[in-house]
C-alpha cells in the first residue's frame, strides 16, 4: 500500500505520512552514533567514527564534527556528502548574519535556517530529502549554551541530552535514567522518587563527557572504546567570554575512557 | 556647504586618512591617523583605519569611510569562511589576492578605498602589499603608504627608512614618518596609532600629535 506513495517526496500517503522523509531517517539509523549533552558550563558531543576500511587514508579533518562559526559546532549522522552541503549552508548563513548585523547569530536562528533549507526538499522540486541528522551545539548571550537536534524533515528541537544515529533509542533510554541525577555519586541506588519532584542537576562538562562515553559504550554494542573509534568534542567559554571549541586529542580521550571504566567497575561492585 | 576653494575634492579625499606600513627585522609595523572628517569639518578623532585580521595580519584602509568600514566587515566575513572551510589560517599573500579580487569585482563602481596589507608569512618573514581602489597589487620589501597625504608619506619613508630595524626603532620611524606627514595635510591627523607585529605578539601604541 505504501509503495504507491513513497516514490515522491512531495506526496502525502493516505495515512498522512511522507515516506521519503521516513526512509531518509532510516538511512541515518545505520550511520555512526552521535550523542550530545548540555552541561552547566558548556556542551559536549561524542561521536562514533565508523571505520569502513583499514585501507582508508587517515582523515586529516573530522568526518563527524564541524565548526560552523565562532560560537557553534555541529556533529553529523548520515550521508556525509549531504552533510557537507548543509554545513556549508550553515557557515554561509552564520557569516552573512554576522556581516549584516555585526553580531553573532543566535543559535536557534542558525538551526532554523538549516532546517528551513532541508524542509524545502520535502515540499518542492521533486528532489530527495537530505539523509542527515545534526546535533548543533552553540552559545549565545540570549540563551547561553544550547543543544539542538534536526532531522531530514526539517524539524528541530532543543535538548538537554540526546542521541542520533545507530542505536539511538538505547542511548536515549540510558540518558533518561542517568542525566541529571547527582552524577558525582555514580553508584547511588536509584530510588522510586516522583520524577516531577526530582531536580535535574546539570552535569559539569567533565561529567557530561564521561556520560557521553558511557552512552557510546552502550550504542556501540560493547565494542571496546578507543580514541580511534571515538571523537569527543567540548564547547566552553574562556575567561574573556569567548567560545572554545575543543576536539579532545587521543590522550585526553583515553583519560575519559579510563575514568568511565573505573566508574562502571566500582558501580558494578555495589 | 563647504568653504570656498578652487579644486574639486575627489571622493577619496572626502573623509581624509593616512596609512603607513614598514618592514623591520622579523617584524612589520602598520600605523594610521585618527581623523574622521566630512570635507573640512572634523567629526571624530578616534577613527582608526587599521584592522587586525589575525595575530600576524593587519590591513589598513584609506579612503571613503563607509567603504573602509564595509571592506573591514567584508574581509572578516570572507576570512572566517576561508578558515572554516580550509581549516587553516589565511596567509598574507592569499589575503592580498582576496582583497584584490573583492575590489576588482566592483571594477565599474568601485569601493573608494586604497588598502595596505602588513603581516608575517608562515615562515615569519615580513610581508607588505598595497593596491589601488580596483585591486592592482604591488608588493614591496620596505614600506607602503596610502591616504590623502601619500605624497608626504612617501617622502618621509624614503628619507627615514632603513632596512632591518628592530621593533622599537621601527616604531619610532613609523611614528615620525606618520606625524610629520599628517601635519602638512589638512585632512589627516589628530594623533595616530601604531601596531608592531612580531612572532611573539602585537605591540600597539597611541601617538600624540597636533590636534588640528
Topology:
The complex is a heterodimer of chains A (270) and B (212).
Chain A: H1 19-28, E1 34-39, E2 42-48, E3 65-69, E4 72-78, H2 80-101, H3 107-120, E5 132-140, E6 144-150, E7 156-158, E8 161-164, H4 168-178, H5 205-219, E9 230-237, E10 243-247, H6 250-269
Antiparallel strand pairs in A: 1-2, 1-8, 2-9, 3-4, 4-5, 5-6, 6-7, 9-10
Helix pairs in contact in A: 2-3, 4-5, 5-6
Chain B: E1 18-23, E2 27-33, E3 36-38, E4 41-44, E5 50-54, E6 57-63, H1 65-86, H2 92-105, E7 113-120, E8 126-131, E9 137-140, E10 143-147, H3 150-160, H4 167-183, E11 192-198, E12 201-207
Antiparallel strand pairs in B: 1-2, 1-10, 2-11, 3-4, 5-6, 6-7, 7-8, 8-9, 11-12
Helix pairs in contact in B: 3-4
What attributes characterize this protein structure?
heterodimer, A: 270 residues, alpha+beta, 5-stranded antiparallel beta sheet, 10 strands, 23% strand, globular, B: 212 residues, 12 strands
Account of the protein in words:
- The complex is a heterodimer of chains A (270) and B (212).
- With 270 residues, chain A is of the alpha+beta class.
- Chain A is 34% helix and 23% strand.
- Chain A has 6 helices and 10 strands.
- In chain A, the strands form 2 sheets. Chain A has a 5-stranded antiparallel beta sheet with strand order 8-1-2-9-10. Chain A has a 5-stranded antiparallel beta sheet with strand order 3-4-5-6-7.
- In chain A, strand 6 (144-150) and strand 7 form a beta hairpin.
- The N and C termini of chain A lie far apart (53 Å).
- Chain B is an alpha+beta fold and 212 residues long.
- Chain B has 4 helices and 12 strands.
- In chain B, the strands form 3 sheets. A 5-stranded antiparallel beta sheet of chain B has the order 10-1-2-11-12, with helices on one face. Chain B has a 5-stranded antiparallel beta sheet with strand order 5-6-7-8-9, covered by helices on one side. A two-stranded antiparallel sheet of chain B has the order 3-4.
- In chain B, helix 3 (150-160) runs antiparallel to helix 4 (167-183).
- Chain B is globular, with a radius of gyration of 16 Å.
- The two termini of chain B are 21 Å apart.
Amino acid at each position: 500500500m505504501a509503495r504507491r506513495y513513497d516514490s515522491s517526496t512531495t506526496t502525502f500517503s493516505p495515512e498522512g505520512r511522507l515516506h521519503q522523509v521516513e526512509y531518509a531517517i532510516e538511512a541515518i539509523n545505520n550511520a555512526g552514533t552521535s550523542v550530545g549533552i548540555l552541561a552547566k558550563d558548556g556542551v559536549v558531543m561524542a561521536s562514533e567514527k565508523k571505520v569502513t576500511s583499514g585501507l582508508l587514508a587517515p582523515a586529516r579533518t573530522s568526518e563527524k564534527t564541524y565548526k560552523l562559526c565562532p560560537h557553534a559546532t555541529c556533529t553529523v549522522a548520515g550521508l556525509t556528502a549531504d552533510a557537507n552541503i548543509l554545513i556549508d549552508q550553515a557557515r554561509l548563513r552564520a557569516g552573512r548574519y554576522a556581516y549584516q548585523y555585526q553580531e553573532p547569530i543566535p543559535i536557534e536562528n542558525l538551526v532554523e535556517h538549516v532546517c528551513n533549507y532541508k524542509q524545502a526538499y520535502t515540499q518542492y522540486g521533486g528532489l530527495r530529502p537530505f539523509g542527515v541528522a545534526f546535533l548543533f551545539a552553540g552559545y549565545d548571550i540570549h540563551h547561553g549554551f544550547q543543544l539542538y537536534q534536526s532531522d531530514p524533515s526539517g524539524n528541530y528541537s532543543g535538548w538537554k541530552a540526546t542521541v542520533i544515529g545507530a542505536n539511538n533509542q538505547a542511548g536515549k533510554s540510558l540518558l533518561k535514567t542517568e542525566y541529571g541525577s547527582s552524577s558525582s555519586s555514580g553508584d547511588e541506588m536509584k530510588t522510586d522518587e516522583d520524577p516531577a519532584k526530582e531536580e535535574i542537576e546539570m552535569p559539569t562538562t567533565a561529567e557530561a563527557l564521561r556520560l557521553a562515553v558511557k552512552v557510546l559504550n552502550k550504542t556501540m554494542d560493547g565494542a571496546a572504546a578507543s580514541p580511534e573509534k571515538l571523537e569527543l568534542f567540548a564547547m566552553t567559554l574562556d575567561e574573556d567570554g569567548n567560545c572554545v571549541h575543543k576536539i579532545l586529542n587521543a590522550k585526553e580521550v583515553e583519560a575519559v575512557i579510563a575514568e568511565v571504566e573505573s566508574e562502571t567497575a566500582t558501580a558494578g561492585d555495589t | 556647504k563647504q568653504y570656498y576653494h578652487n579644486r574639486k575634492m575627489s571622493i577619496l579625499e572626502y573623509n581624509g586618512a593616512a596609512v603607513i606600513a614598514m618592514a623591520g627585522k622579523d617584524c612589520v609595523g602598520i600605523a594610521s591617523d585618527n581623523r574622521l572628517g566630512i570635507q573640512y569639518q572634523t567629526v571624530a578623532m578616534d577613527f582608526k583605519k587599521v584592522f587586525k585580521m589575525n595575530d600576524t595580519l593587519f590591513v589598513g584602509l584609506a579612503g571613503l569611510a563607509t567603504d573602509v568600514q564595509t571592506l573591514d566587515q567584508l574581509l572578516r566575513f570572507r576570512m572566517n569562511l576561508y578558515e572554516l572551510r580550509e581549516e587553516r589560517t589565511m596567509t598574507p599573500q592569499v589575503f592580498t589576492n582576496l582583497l584584490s579580487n573583492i575590489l576588482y569585482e566592483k571594477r565599474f563602481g568601485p569601493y573608494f578605498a586604497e588598502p595596505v596589507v602588513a603581516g608575517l608569512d608562515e615562515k615569519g618573514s615580513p610581508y607588505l602589499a598595497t593596491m589601488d581602489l580596483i585591486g592592482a597589487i604591488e608588493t614591496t620589501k620596505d614600506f607602503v603608504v596610502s591616504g590623502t597625504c601619500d605624497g608626504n608619506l612617501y617622502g618621509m619613508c624614503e628619507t627615514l627608512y632603513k632596512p632591518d630595524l628592530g621593533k622599537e626603532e621601527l616604531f619610532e620611524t613609523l611614528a615620525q614618518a606618520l606625524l610629520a606627514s599628517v601635519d602638512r595635510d589638512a585632512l589627516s591627523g589628530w594623533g595616530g596609532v601604531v601596531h608592531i607585529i612580531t612572532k611573539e605578539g602585537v605591540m600597539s601604541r597611541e601617538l600624540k600629535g597636533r590636534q588640528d
